[in-house]
Amino acid sequence: MNSALDNSILTLVTFIPLAGALLLLLFPRRDRDIRLFALVVSLLDFVLSLHLPVHFQRGQPGFQYEVNNLWIANPNIHYHMGVDGVSMWLVVLTTFLTPLCVLISWKSIHERVKEFFILLLVLQTALIGVFVALDLFLFYFFWEATLIPMALLIGIYGHGRRVYAAVKFFLYTMVASMFMLAAILWLYAKTGTFDFVSIQNAIRGGRVDNFGGAAIWLFLGFFIAFAVKVPVFPFHTWLPDAHVEAPTAGSVLLAGVLLKMGTYGMFRFNLGLFPEQSRSNAPWIMVLALIGIVYGALVAMVQPNMKKLIAYSSISHLGFVVLGIFSFTQAGLDGATFVMLAHGVSTGALFMLAGILYERRHTYEIAEFGGLASPMPVYATFFLFIVLASVGLPLLNGFVGEFLVLSGAFRDRAIYGILGATGVIWSACYLLWMYQRVFYGKVTHPVNQTLPDLSGRERAALWPAAAAALVMGAAPLLWLNSIDPAVQNALAPFAQLASKVVGR
Amino acid sequence: MNGANDLTQAIPQAADYIRILPEIVLAIFGMIVMVLDPLMDERRNQKTLGAIALIGSLAALAATLFQSQYPGLGFWNMVRVDSFSVFFHFLVAAVTAVVILSSFEYMQVQGIRAGEYYALVLFGALGMSLMSSAVELVLIFIALEISSISTYILAGFRRRAAISSEASVKYFLLGSFATAFFLYGVALMFGATGSTSISVIGDALHLGAVPVLAYVGVALMFVGLGFKVAAAPFHVWTPDVYEGAPAPVVGFMSTAPKAAVFAVLLRIMFEANAPGRLWLIWIAAALSMTIGNLGALVQDNVKRLLAYSSIAHAGYLLVAFAALPNNGIPAAMFYAASYAAMNVGAFAVISHIGGEGERYVTLEDYEGLGRRSPLLAAILTIFLLSLIGIPVTGGFFAKFYVFSAALQANLVGLVIIGVLNSAIASYYYLRLIVVMYMREAREEVPLSPVPLGLGAALAISLAATIYLGVLPGRVLDYAARTAVDWAR
User: Fold this and answer.
1) What DSSP string describes B313-363?
2) Which of chain A's residues have a Cβ under 8 Å away from the Cβ of B427?
3) Which of A129, A301, B95, B184 supports an S-S bond with B256, CB 3.0-4.6 Å?
């Protein structure tokens, strides 16, 4: 095996987009070259990131491709990176979506093009960094670093109320992550290290002073930062605003990857560092998750705005993830991870589809459309495919994860599973109803009669997403057999709860 | 006492002069500027005098480096060169150089005669440098006065603007009042311990029972010094003075004298073992952070906004004083350095954008700056992000060290107040960033290209801000030596 690449692969995958952004700074303002270069960089990063799953030692718990170098001696900060089965796929999801974002922004961004792609690539580096960092400081650094490019993407390239949305997004997440910073500082003050693994061992070995009294506050400090990011009901109000105002690429990355930072954080840090507190707080968190599932779905149903509908559907879907994580069952956690990936692909694609329509009509109002299936047949087919993936049709990617989550939730307490299952029904209602209103029947507005169908570039952006949705649904084991050991590892403190669902 | 011995002691040795070498250099260059000013053609002298002053500040920097090889006491134990004094000398000289660089353009645009200005900056720097190396309360008082009087005058340098004169008079009156408090505190401290030497006081308060008089003395000294660093509840002058004073001067007086006064405060609180430190500081820090940040939320004038922000930052810095010496001292020193880097840079940008008569200083005037001058906007954004405390900037590690030092002293309450305050603070800095990037440009605000001097000033402060944010280790280690030196 290529061991030299194994050692540096995470650094490369993380920082190639940043290097690309820096090179873009030097580019002359020829928009076409800039777009092309951004595409090449993001594709290169995607290809490199495929090294991770290809050479991943499946079945082996713990972190792989680790790098651990001293960065700053005081405080004791290490450049420590590594991935397990969960974070590896999130990295690949990020590198997979970014080239699609570049493609989808090709025409829709025509002002300040250079800055746009610089921000996009910087954002990519920060996102990947969040998933690979194993040093709490490094993690916090990347976590905060995602805020600035995202807020700028919304605030500069967004629609009407973009400034309001950008500021709201920034403040919500900034204020919440302050609590996490306080918790991280406390851990550092008591253990003298930021290293995730060392802190975990110290806590498990009972070597942290005053941990008993502080643990619940630390748990909540981390949880609140993640809950706002996910967002868990009632911290969700920033999300619809941010989505509606964001440019398409921003929405894709926001829904596809940024929200997963929150659920990933819950998995890695809340469960990893504070298992007992996670267990004892699980009931109310699961109730919030269930409220999120049902509430998000019901609000989505009555939205007249297509993008807002998709945004609320994200709240609902992410509720499944939280439900799965706090069910403490192998099935639930496997499913939660799979929903994260599936939601990233299918909701990312939904936002791209909505953006394509916006480029043609400059509106997201569902009432403005109707009967689009006849002028835009290819578009309608793609849309239907993604909608079906999103509602959880078996053999497409949405089904596997939600099924596993629900079976995990049932095992924890039947009522959770039953209530959660209604969410699947709701999602079919609002998505299919929207599909019906937009595509079926006669063309209601004459303008829509002449809308052009998908261009080659738009197809190039949608095909990979559709293919991924199909492969993930048909062969989920490709993903689950590397997710499973990581989940088992996370559940080790809850040994009596762990039961294998995936045969190897 | 032996008469002959007395005589030899009364004559300063060469070693004594090395102990105050940077101060001597600054005094000489200040006087050169003053003497040359009337001899030169008024139109041409601006740049020349500025260049001389710049050389003076760089020479002081060099003198500091030279001096650092010869640590020790001088002038009858009144000054001491140690890693602590070298740190602050370096800081003051560097800030002075950056301020002079960013003043070239400003002086020309505002039509201000440059001579006395540069001389006063150098004399002020002299006072500030001396404050950090003086280890005797009366000498500290003299140094404080040298620094203060220079800044009083500098604050009123926009002679044609009434608001500037108001700033100067207000600063002068309240400032003199505050120095009187300090002096009174020194007198009581002398009464309590029988000495004005920091190390003697430190020993006395360390070993014996602490007389009540010492508590009062510390409190009074803190009132005087708290005024100078704009810590609440002695902060009321700050917004008015910062609004009226010339922008480069605000950049100067919000960083260098503040750092120097914090140096004095460190000496008094830690080296002199001041009693009653914890609660005094706790209250002042919590008040400063909260009042500063809440006040800044409603400001529309950028200078007033940064004035309130500087009150808040004084509060964050004070948090370090409530911690234990071994990590509180380095945290405070690091904070002073990184605050100096980012704030002096931010004011350099503001003085450039302000234009003639500082007409463009409201938030509205920054609308669309991101489009009209992407580079300037990006640089200001980095300074603002550093003031918020976003990673890879010095401001992040500054807050980080301060809060983790406080946590190690189990000051959880103070840290929570601080963290919540940082969250509030992000709102108003962000407002400025939002205005620059997300509002449409209004064409009325003229924007001249960035001249060389200002560019250099920005580059230096930017490099320092990023350096402290990426590799803070070396600076912190250097600062940590002080804690070792002072440990007893």
Assistant:
1) HHHHHHHHHHS-HHHHHHHHHHHHHHHHHHHHHHHHHHHHHHTGGG---BG
2) 171
3) B95
